[in-house]
Amino acid sequence: MVTITCVSIAEAPLQPEEERDLEERARPYRALYEHWESNQWSPLDLDFSRDRESFQALSDDDKQGFMWIFAHRFHAEFMVATILAPFVVRAPNYELQTCLSTQLADEFRHLQSVLRVYDEVFGIRSVDRVRAMADANIDPVAAAMYEAIHPYVAPLETSADEDLFLQAVVCYHLIGEGVVARTSQNLAANQYERFGVFPGLVQGQRHVARDEARHIGIGVSYVRQRMAKDRERTSAVIGEIVEAFAEFSTSLLKTALSGGMDSQVLAGYGVEAEGFYAEAMRLWQIRLRSIGLADD
């Protein structure tokens, strides 16, 4: 078993039971597909008129903190939407391929939702302008994390090796989606009430959170399937990634603290860098338990 030292935050973000169940319990791919079919939504249905008024009423500092959150969201959604295609191509069976196809559709839906926020809440139109604004508020810690994940995903473009696919799933679904993105979502969701009244953002966040829980569940279900087939080999294939992530996360915390990011994280997420790290490690421990690599 893997031992991870986890620092707890005083109060973990509340999460619906359905989402926790999707994230933490392996299930047949058919069930995940059926969940997708029965939970469709459109970013075009979100009403941001009240959100725009609330944003305009914020102080300059709060506006900056708010936009810092969405810079992270834009980069995260753009990144995942553009690198997921090889997973669909290399999926080892049709049922998993179908689930990954639904995830690809979800990610572009999430990206459209973010672009609507920039347009209708922040008043920033066109993808190029949004990217420039997001780049000006980039989160260097998250950027470093995604850069570290990429080498494990890139081989899928040229190889159908199932062990490489397994490593990519652990990095993408369990770390990228299940820890980095989920930490940001959990903490950001708790901040909307502090910033003001944002009904459109809250509704959109609920849709995205449910989708992301299902995406994490795809990864958990695949890794569990591999563990059931050959636990020793599966543990060996992903063991290096599991150990490296804990060490890498600690180094990123030091980078954030030394780089003076506490004020940015506090303005955007309502916690200091150590609080963000604590939530990430809490989620990482859950992911390890879900795939059978850590004790309950």
Descriptive overview:
The chain has 296 residues and is mainly α. It has one domain (17-290): Ribonucleotide Reductase, subunit A (Orthogonal Bundle), CATH 1.10.620. It is built from 14 helices and no strands. It is globular, with a radius of gyration of 18 Å. 42% of the residues are buried.
Query: For this structure, what is the CATH class?
Result: Mainly Alpha
The count of DSSP E runs of length 2 or more, i.e. the number of strands, is 0
**What is CATH's topology name?**
Ribonucleotide Reductase, subunit A
Task: Tell me the distance between the termini.
Answer: 11 Å
CATH superfamily: Ribonucleotide Reductase, subunit A
**Mean of the pLDDT scores?**
84
CATH architecture: Orthogonal Bundle
- What does the largest sheet look like? none
Amount of beta strand: under 5%
